[in-house]
Amino acid sequence: MKLLLPETVRDALAHMAGRDGVTTPIAGGTDLLVHWPVRLGERDRTYVDLWQLQELKPLRWTADALILGGLTTYWDVIRDRRAGDEFPLLVAAARQVGAIQIQARGTWAGNIVNASPAADGVPALMAYGAVVVLESQRGTEEVPLDGFYTGYKDMRRRPDQLIVAVRIPRRRYSYQTFAKVGSRRAQSIAKVGLAVTQSDDGWRVVAASMAPTIRRCPAIERLLQQGAVLRDSDDLLPAIARDVSPIDDVRSTAEYRRRVMARVLYDELRETCGWR
Amino acid sequence: MSTVQVVFTLNGAAVSLDLDPAERLLDTLRYRLGLTGTKEGCGEGECGACTVYLDGLPVNSCLVPTYQVRGARVESVEAIAAERLGPFLAQGATQCGACTPGVVMTALWIGAHPELLETHTIRELMAGNLCRCTGYDGIVDAVSTALGHGEPPV
Ligand SMILES: Cc1cc2nc3c(=O)[nH]c(=O)nc-3n(C[C@H](O)[C@H](O)[C@H](O)COP(=O)(O)OP(=O)(O)OC[C@H]3O[C@@H](n4cnc5c(N)ncnc54)[C@H](O)[C@@H]3O)c2cc1C
Ligand code: FES
Ligand code: FES
Fold first, then answer.
1. How far apart are CA A132 and CA A119, in angstroms?
2. Domains of chain A
3. What ipTM was reported for this prediction?
4. Which residues of B touch chain A, with CB atoms under 8 Å apart?
5. Is residue A162 classed as helix, strand or coil in its secondary structure?
6. Given 3.10.20.30, 3.30.200.20, 3.40.50.300, 3.40.190.10, which CATH number is that of B4-78?
7. pLDDT digits over A260-270, tens only?
8. What pTM was computed for the model?
């Protein structure tokens, strides 16, 4: 493998621009190192290190947004008291990612680009209306996270672009919840993941492990927006069928996932929505 | 294959190495530097047997490419004074011992940060250290004892 060690974001973007062929950025390495080239024989790959780019590390608060850096880790967010107060789902999600050893190294941007349909960071960000800030030598581009994924591991990021920030607008939330059904509490991959928020911008319902990408659920959001009165969790199944397309795999079946999603959503929302 | 020069602080002493950019910190410690206290369990970030401190935070050394510790501070289990292990021996926190170096690293880190227990339980903070033998109760007890002292791990 070839390794490039830029010292500034500018240098990193120059490397990403294709001068050295296709390059893979590496941040905390918690996804990339699991299949590290020594084992895959990908010795011809070129990596661009981001870990040294301290300018991308800090998170920032502005009057109307929390801005995560391109290298902000889960632990950086867990430690930030204001994040816990204002964006509790971010902290709840971060605490679900592996354990401290992973949280200390894993980054939000890495979670977004790794694009696992079962990721924990992405649903929380999406439920808060996060915007991905991409940069390349050609300039800056902003893509709302809920429009970022175009298919399984496919996304609106060109190979020369780095995520340099993730902007999360500050809104007043009247309801927010994060739920993950896995086989055990800690360090497990989600069978069904949910992040739900209600703000002056309306409802956002985000499902993980229920489709080739993490995605919003417009049919369910419509039900909630209309104030539909439901009698039990089965009433959610038609909307769930429209919004997601789960699969059978080693962790679970499609049928089980749909039912679990209906039950969890129903239980989480019944009080707020005045359902039985 | 070009090598990369890596200068960092390991257990308080400066180290300078030229190495393959793909080399993992776990292998650098064990095979290049002969510090075999750090163990490899899974090699995939799941078990925590390879836990070391990177700039004061516990990380899995099997998932850290060594080149990324340039300019950083690394502590391995060899930096821990033997007498700090007392509670782990006394309270049944170790049986076969395979997990123990990693457990000790995470446990003493928690011990040095009692404020974490305002938001976290010991079990949650220890979730990245798998143990097939003890059932974790002894480990949690030993961490509680370490907390009583509140000393920095190294
Ligand atoms: C034991 C273990 C448990 C885990 N548990 C969970 C879990 O419970 N939930 C969960 O969601 N994830 C989990 N993960 C996955 C992983 O920790 C996260 O996806 C993490 O956020 C990845 O971040 P990283 O910085 O380590 O990424 P890296 O491995 O460095 O990179 C991941 C991908 O992102 C790209 N990339 C990184 N940064 C940028 C950037 N700034 N711009 C453009 N591309 C970039 C890389 O090229 C690569 O494709 C787990 C991993 C392990 C090893
Ligand atoms: S060997 Fe590193 S976590 Fe298991
Ligand atoms: S003592 Fe045997 S694995 Fe923990």
1. 16
2. 173-273 (3.30.390.50)
3. 0.95
4. 2, 4, 21-22, 24, 44-46, 48, 51, 54, 57-60, 62-65, 67-68, 70, 106, 119-120, 124-129
5. strand
6. 3.10.20.30
7. 999 999 999 99
8. 0.95
